[in-house]
Design goal:
With 395 residues, the protein is α/β, with parallel strands linked by helices. The protein has 14 helices and 16 strands. It has 3 domains: 100 residues, Rossmann fold (3-Layer(aba) Sandwich), CATH 3.40.50; 186 residues, 3-Layer(aba) Sandwich (Rossmann fold); 88 residues, 2-Layer Sandwich (Alpha-Beta Plaits), CATH 3.30.70.260. The strands form 3 sheets. The protein has a 7-stranded parallel beta sheet, sandwiched between helices. Strand 4, helix 2 and strand 5 form a beta-alpha-beta unit. Helix 3 crosses helix 6. The longest helix has 21 residues.
Length: 395
Amino acid sequence: MFQILVLNSISAAGLKRLPGARYRVGKEAANPDAILLRSHPLQVSEIPESVKAVGRAGAGVNNIPVEELTRRGVPVFNAPGANANAVKELVLAAMLIGARNLAPALAFTQALPREATDFESRVEEGKKAYAGVELPGRTLGVIGLGAIGGLVADTAIRMGMKVLGYDPDITVDSAWRLPASVRKAQSVDEVMKHSDFITLHLPLLPQTRHLINAERLSGIRKGAVLLNFAREGIVDEDAVKSALADKRLKAYLCDFPSPGLAGVAGVVAFPHLGASTAEAEENCAVMVVDQLRDFLEQGTVRHAVNFPSVEMPRESAYRIAISNANVPNMVGQISTTMARSGLNIHNMVNKSKGDMAYTLVDLDSAADAETIRRITSIAGVLSVRVLPSPEEGAE
């Protein structure tokens, strides 16, 4: 029986994919095999030694101590792309709000006194201050062309916009999905210089923190609109406020309210609405639950931020999963230890990602406790799991 500790409200569509005969799911578990969460700020002290995996029903993992879990040999799963359409729609809504000055226009109409005898004339006179622009023919700069950025680019082109994209780390799959008409920029600065609207779709990493700063904002087209629905720290708030005050930046629309931006003219901040749709929450839950289950039952790794992707068809009832440091001769030591115990390796796969490596081994017979102890004692081995047989894992 696997125990899953749930630290946030998770869509029932995802949780029901954990069969009751095999899983106990709840907000309390003394020795959980996995933790499932959304935005809960997970602390190292909250993670028992029994935890074999952590699943985030969303894309970002900034609320999870990934480095510590990596040292323990614990994969952290997320759901990249599962909320992509929800975020894309919000980005497009924000772009329209910025283009047509809808936020200040709405504030104007809401402030009109209902009892005024000249109500209609005030409306007609006031609307002149909120004239906007149309999107066709305008240039959208997309920094980050993953699942969300690619969808935004595609939809913008369908709306008649020109798209200039930049992503030095674009994957082959993402590149294939991009429309051919997306022009490739050579740098962030090129995007900033040539775009009427700029949208950010990057993870928050040390190298992307304050990627949009005073220097970069000094090179934008006058009257450009900046959209940030990725991560708050990618943008330097002080630089944004300065650019707005100087009228270099027309508007900053984001999903990250903060005291520093509250009440600043030109700022429209939503309360973290990016993935807040029933469909996105369901998609994220289903995706990450399936990944957790495949890992716990089969050792399969898909969409782990700190582990390589590893899948191997099950050809034996006896499977072992090993997390280890990516160092020379690790596979040799593991296979030698098994051979000395009289075990025959039926199939094996080993892959690495940075400093982390992961090995799946199918054996022709069961490994005894002493063999598992010897493998665990190999320098660099972080964790060893004996996986249930396919019969045990059946619903």
